[in-house]
Amino acid sequence: MRGNYVIGIDFGTDSVRSILVNANSGEEVSSDVFYYPRWAKGLYNNPGKNQFRQHPLDYIEGISSTIKRCLENAGPEVASEVVAISVDTTGSTPIAVNKDGVPLSLLPEFSENPNAMFILWKDHTAVAEAKEINNHAEKYENNYLKYVGGVYSSEWFWSKILHISRIDEVVRSHAYTWIEHCDWVPFLLTGGNSADKIKRGVCAAGHKGLWAEEYQGYPPNEFFEELDPILKGHVEKLGAETVCSSESVGTLSEEWAEKLGLSTQVKVGAGAFDCHMGAVGGEIEPYFLSKVMGTSTCDILVVPGELDFTVEGICGQVNGSVIPKMTGLEAGQSAFGDAYAWFKDLLMWPLIEIFGKDNEQVKLAEKKIIPMLSEKASLITPALSQPLAIDWLNGRRTPYANQNLKSAFFDLNLSTDVILLFRAVVESTCFGAKKIVECFVDQQIPVNGIIALGGVAKKSPFVMQMMADIINMPIKVHKSEQTCALGAAMFAAVVGGIYQTVEEAMEKMGQGFDVEYQPNPDFAPIYAERYKKYSQLSDLLENNLYHV
């Protein structure tokens, strides 16, 4: 008898989560979280240089730990009923691999070299290279950037490859090719041993790698070689074919089946980015903007069929990157929850310095600061005279990527207190969200509503209400605490043959919504004025201080 259980694995920035789901009902049978030990220690990172790297051992250990615990908690009879596994990851998060497909940092000679590790989505060390790619693309009659919004970002695949190849000759000489995290995990689980046989998902390839159906693959080798000769030959090793996340890339290898306590008959789906699978887990529908709101945001919108025009300033439009037979459009903010965490860290520093981070009162303060500030800030009626902030603490992802941009505060005086400053930070992130909505609407892509997902959406009514007020649109929050993992499980259900389509999996496994925020009409006029001021000041900064 065919099994009815699937596993979804969601690789986040700080941790990996696995969930075991009954595909018939969508019931989450068990779940487990593994926090990356090397990442927790801050190893291989240099925030001052915007360098953020992750060791593949954090991921490998996380897979093994979380799936084993999920199966243990579910009981011994469930393991034999698991039919498929699918994964999502952050992105763009590439790594250099040898000809066997082994990440260089898993080799002894590279085990402590950050350049041989996964280059995390939030790593902005390749700003100069991104600028070069944008300038280089202008030389060509064929606009190779049109399917990624017209602007290539330092957060993406080719910028990072070029940067590492330039600064680390040893890594460059040993790198046979590069692979995205979301493509490497399925390759690992299926026992892949040849980089030439890596199956690359259309999600990562299209949104970050410049793959497009129009080109029947990637831009030609000449495009990259003329950018820099050290990129010669790379594009051929990527291959021209891609797969949708509804497709299987193989079955569990004997090694991983034994390690996890599963069958070698368990199918493994093609990987995708977290927000794309999260949109599916959050039951996205056409022309609704799905916002995965965590450290950053990733905004996904799907359009039935194919568009006959390209949308500028976004993170890409790719057929089948979210749901087969639909065009997936991606946008996002480089810092969202990160902005609130930054503000909290500012306030915590003197306490930690005076009393120590292990002090129980300090630990309590760290937990209470943001909720307390949110409660107090929610009581303040917006006014034009209040402080105003620009949300570029980690650059800007959308509209029109520019990681050179910096944040700023305006209208401070001696009466400005910490609550008003916090309110300005939150407001700025909501203004950034409004910019994304406008980017779509101004280009004839309607936004009929907003679906909010992720930690911030579930935990911060203050942020969500302000966003509804500023965008002036209802926002419904999905019930699931982990829509990305649930979305991966939905794809696994299709990969495993339980459902024929992603839409059917969403219908049968979806958990629905638990709250909807309605905009306050009384605040609409003042927020419109403050948004106008925000737009004017952000233009002033970009055009004068950070113009590149």
Describe this structure in words.
With 548 residues, the protein is of the alpha/beta class. It has 2 domains: 5-282 and 480-513, ATPase, nucleotide binding domain (Nucleotidyltransferase, domain 5, 2-Layer Sandwich), CATH 3.30.420; 337-470 and 518-545, Nucleotidyltransferase, domain 5. The protein is 39% helix and 18% strand. The chain has helices at residues 37-40, 56-74, 127-137, 157-167, 169-174, 181-189, 202-208, 221-227, 234-238, 254-260, 274-281, 337-355, 360-377, 418-441, 455-459, 461-471, 483-495, 502-509, 524-545, and strands at 5-11, 15-22, 27-35, 53-54, 82-89, 94-97, 118-119, 177-180, 248-251, 267-269, 272-273, 288-293, 297-304, 317-319, 326-333, 388-390, 408-410, 449-453, 475-478, 513-517. The strands form 5 sheets. Strands 1, 2, 3, 5, 9, 10 and 11 form a 7-stranded mixed beta sheet that branches. Helix 17 crosses helix 18. The longest helix has 24 residues, at 418-441.
Which descriptors apply to this entry?
548 residues; alpha/beta; Nucleotidyltransferase, domain 5; 7-stranded mixed beta sheet
Structural topology:
Layout: E1 5-11, E2 15-22, E3 27-35, H1 37-40, E4 53-54, H2 56-74, E5 82-89, E6 94-97, E7 118-119, H3 127-137, H4 157-167, H5 169-174, E8 177-180, H6 181-189, H7 202-208, H8 221-227, H9 234-238, E9 248-251, H10 254-260, E10 267-269, E11 272-273, H11 274-281, E12 288-293, E13 297-304, E14 317-319, E15 326-333, H12 337-355, H13 360-377, E16 388-390, E17 408-410, H14 418-441, E18 449-453, H15 455-459, H16 461-471, E19 475-478, H17 483-495, H18 502-509, E20 513-517, H19 524-545
Parallel strand pairs: 1-5, 5-10, 5-11, 12-18, 18-19
Antiparallel strand pairs: 1-2, 2-3, 4-7, 6-8, 9-10, 12-13, 13-15, 14-15, 16-17, 19-20
